[in-house]
Structure formats: structure tokens, C-alpha cells
Design goal:
Elements: H1 2-20, H2 30-39, E1 46-52, E2 57-59, H3 64-69, H4 72-79, E3 84-90, E4 93-104, E5 107-118, H5 119-169, H6 184-233, H7 239-270, E6 278-281, H8 282-299, E7 303-308, E8 313-316, H9 318-334, E9 341-349, E10 352-359, H10 381-386, H11 393-403, E11 407-412, E12 418-425
Parallel strand pairs: 7-9
Antiparallel strand pairs: 1-2, 1-5, 3-4, 4-5, 6-8, 9-10, 10-12, 11-12
């Protein structure tokens, strides 16, 4: 802004002088130039130098400043009719100069050099520079302090997360990291807390699983040991009693085998290990399972009703389908009422294969429905123990169905008992 105002002022003064000298045709007489300058009201702060077209001094005391500001190549531009301006700020003073040609009848007859040294404006500019410099130092210091604060804050928060990771790695899954704000680190803290919650839940499930599995395995083992010790310690035991004890040992061994096999099945499902899936006929799998379980149903005077549609194919493994169907039908038989019934229906619905298993048993209380697929969960623990149940069958059903991409549901029937429904996508052989 200062440069623009100075340029306008100095150039305006130079143009006034140039116009006034146009009538002094040849500018060869210095006295004529001096009289014109005396007539003009030129500001006292201005230094004026006037030369002819060849550079001869006609007015003014020196051309040193003019030669410093405008080198020879610039002087040639002025002699060609171009106005020139130059400004600089040195040692607290503002210097500005203008070089304007004097034109008469279309010819360049001289040059007017106007030079000003403004200490007052220079002082203002110097103070402005000092103020700007001080403000810049303050801004830089503030920015550095803010940067240091932000860096320390970020480092402290990252350190807090790293310490939390070390703590959780040592097994302290209840540990939570406190992270305020809504930035990425705060989101990372929230995700870390969610992860620790999941780890804690998983660890609790694992501990319960190990405890329940140990209990399930320890009970038949304890019975087998007790029965074996009884036989060994009674040399005169009657044959019938000994056979009864040996039969009980066989029963407990079978129970132990079943529990072990179910635990191995769950372990395989948890690890994601599965056999290659093939085209499986659900109807044939249900029929084969019924042949195995009909004697169990007959021992409880239960009626079996079946309605199976043909060509119900799914993409699965034979073992997985057998496990699903066997556990559901076995449960429907074991936990039924005397002289009750089990109804099995298999049909197609849109693009799904649906298997319904209905029983007339005691059912499941509403508050227990959400937990019946949990491992080792039993609605009636005493009755389950008597029936030889381990609380793993429905867990195997749920995990196996999920592994095959289907879903299983359980709901009470209106007239009593339960309905378990398994739904798979129908498998269509590519043409």
C-alpha cells in the first residue's frame, strides 16, 4: 500500500515537471529550465534532476542517485518513452524515485528524475516490521507450545494404550483404558475396551466349558472306579452282583465315550475344520436315524409319525447331517412324556429345505429358551442326568447347522411340547 501511494505521488510530480518542460523546445539552456522549476510548486522533500536526451545535466546538483537507481539499460528504456519507478527500504528510510521522459513534438528531448527520501514513512514501516516480527515470534512460540502439548498428549495416550495391551496380555481381561475425546485414538480406546470385553466373555465361557467338561468326564470315571474297587475288595461277591456291577461299568464307559465324542465334535467345529461338502439327501438321513432310534422310542411307548417330501437335497457332509438329525430326534424321544409322540416332517419351502421335529414332552420354560443351545445347559438337570444327557447335543446341532450355512430355532408348541426347526438352502445340481 505504501509502495503504491509513493509511486503515484512521485510519478505524478515527475509528469507535472515533464509537461511543464515540453515548451522549452531543445532544453539546451539551463537557465530556462531553472526558471520553469522556480515557477513550479515542487514539494521541498523532493530532489529533482533534469538532463537532456544525451544525459547532460541541466538542473539539479547530482546524478549519482539517478545512476544508482536506473542503470544504463533502464535509462535507454526511458529514452524510448517509458516511465520508470523504483523504491527501496534501507536503514529505516523509505526511498522512491521516478524517471520520466520529456517529449516535444513526438521526440524525446530530456529526462526528469524525481527522488524522495521519507524517514517518517520509513519509521512507520520499520515499526510495522518490528511489530510483525514480534507477532510472528509470539505465533511461532504459541504454535510450538501447542505442537508440544499435542505431541505429549498423543504420546501419553498411545502409552496408555500400550500399557493396557501389556496388562491384558498378562490375562487381566477386566482392564479398561480411559480415553476421552472423539478422535481416532478415542475410537481406538473404545475398540480396545470392546475387545477386552469379548476376551473376558470368551475366557469365562472357556473356564465354564473346562469346568463342565471336567465334571462330565469325572462323574462316569468316579463311578467306574468305585464299581471296580467294589469288585476288587469283595472276593466273595455273588456272581449276579458282580455282573450287575460290570454292566454298570459298561454303561458309564458308554456315557464317557459319548461325552468324549461330543466334546471332540465341538472342538472340531470351533477350530473350523470341516470335511468336503457333498450333495446329501435329507430324507435318507432322517430315515436312517429313525431306524436306529425306533427301539428307544418303543421302550417308552412313543409313537413316531413322519411326513417326508422326496428329493430334499442340501450341500453338507453326511456326518454333520447325521449329528443334527440324531441329536434332535433323540432329545425329542428322551424328554417326552410316556406314551407320547414325535412327529417329523421334511419339505421344501421356496428355496429352502425345512425339517420340523415336534414332540409332546414337558417343553421348555420361556425364560430358558434363549439358553437351550448353550453348552452343558440343562433345563432339568436331574432328569437330564437320568436320561444320560450331557448338555452338549443341542450345542452340536446349533454349531453344525451354522457351519453348513443354515439356522435352527426352538419354540413351544401350543398343545404342549417343543418344535425344533432346521432350515437349509436347497441344493440344486448344476445343469
Amino acid at each position: 500500500m505504501i509502495f503504491q501511494s509513493k509511486q503515484a505521488f512521485v510519478q505524478n510530480q515527475a509528469e507535472i515537471i515533464s509537461k511543464s518542460l515540453e515548451d522549452v523546445f531543445e532544453l539546451l539552456i539551463a537557465d530556462d529550465v531553472a526558471r520553469v522549476m522556480e515557477y513550479l510548486d515542487v514539494a521541498e522533500a523532493l530532489n529533482v534532476v533534469i538532463t537532456d536526451a544525451n544525459g547532460k545535466l541541466l538542473y539539479g546538483s547530482s546524478r549519482n542517485n539517478m545512476n544508482d537507481d536506473f542503470p544504463p539499460e533502464e535509462m535507454e528504456k526511458a529514452r524510448e518513452g517509458k516511465d520508470l519507478f523504483y523504491a527501496k527500504f534501507i536503514d529505516g528510510s523509505f526511498f522512491s524515485s521516478s524517471l520520466t521522459p520529456v517529449v516535444s513534438k513526438g521526440a524525446i528531448i530530456g529526462l526528469v528524475y524525481v527522488y524522495e527520501s521519507d524517514w517518517e514513512q520509513g519509521s512507520i514501516l520499520k515499526n510495522m516490521q518490528k511489530t510483525v516480527g514480534n507477532i510472528s515470534i509470539i505465533i511461532i512460540a504459541f504454535a510450538f507450545a501447542m505442537l508440544l502439548f499435542i505431541v505429549r498428549s498423543v504420546i501419553n495416550r498411545i502409552t496408555s494404550i500400550l500399557n493396557a495391551i501389556k496388562t491384558v496380555r498378562e490375562g487381566e481381561y477386566n482392564y479398561h483404558v480411559e480415553m476421552s475425546g472423539k478422535d481416532e485414538l478415542a475410537l481406538l480406546g473404545d475398540e480396545f475396551n470392546s475387545l477386552t470385553d469379548r476376551l473376558r466373555e470368551t475366557d469365562e465361557i472357556r473356564q465354564r466349558f473346562v469346568a463342565n467338561a471336567s465334571h462330565e468326564l469325572r462323574t462316569p470315571l468316579a463311578s467306574i472306579r468305585l464299581l471296580a474297587d467294589s469288585i476288587l475288595q469283595n472276593e466273595g461277591m455273588e456272581r449276579d452282583t458282580m455282573q450287575e456291577f460290570i454292566s454298570d461299568i459298561g454303561t458309564e464307559a458308554e456315557r464317557l465315550t459319548r461325552t468324549t465324542e461330543k466334546l471332540m465334535t465341538l472342538t472340531r467345529l470351533d477350530s473350523g475344520i470341516s470335511d468336503e461338502k457333498i450333495k446329501v439327501n435329507m430324507g435318507e438321513a432322517v430315515a436312517a436315524t429313525l431306524r436306529m432310534l425306533r427301539p428307544l422310542a418303543m421302550s417308552g411307548n412313543l409313537s413316531i409319525f413322519e411326513s417326508m417330501e422326496a428329493d430334499c437335497y442340501v450341500l453338507a457332509t453326511s456326518d454333520a447331517i447325521h449329528q443334527i438329525v440324531f441329536n434332535l430326534i433323540e432329545n425329542a424321544i428322551k424328554y417326552n412324556k410316556p406314551e407320547g409322540s414325535v412327529s417329523i416332517s421334511l419339505f421344501k419351502e421356496n428355496d429352502d429345505i425345512v425339517l420340523n421335529i415336534d414332540d409332546t414332552g414337558v417343553g421348555v420354560p420361556e425364560e430358558d429358551l434363549s439358553q437351550i443351545f448353550d453348552r452343558f445347559y440343562r433345563v432339568d438337570k436331574a432328569r437330564s442326568r437320568e436320561a444320560g444327557g450331557s448338555g452338549l447335543g443341542l450345542s452340536i446341532v446349533r454349531d453344525s447347522v451354522r457351519d453348513l450355512g443354515g439356522n435352527v430355532t426352538a419354540e413351544p408348541r401350543v398343545d404342549g411340547g417343543m418344535r425344533f426347526q432346521v432350515r437349509f438352502k436347497q441344493f440344486n445340481t448344476p445343469a
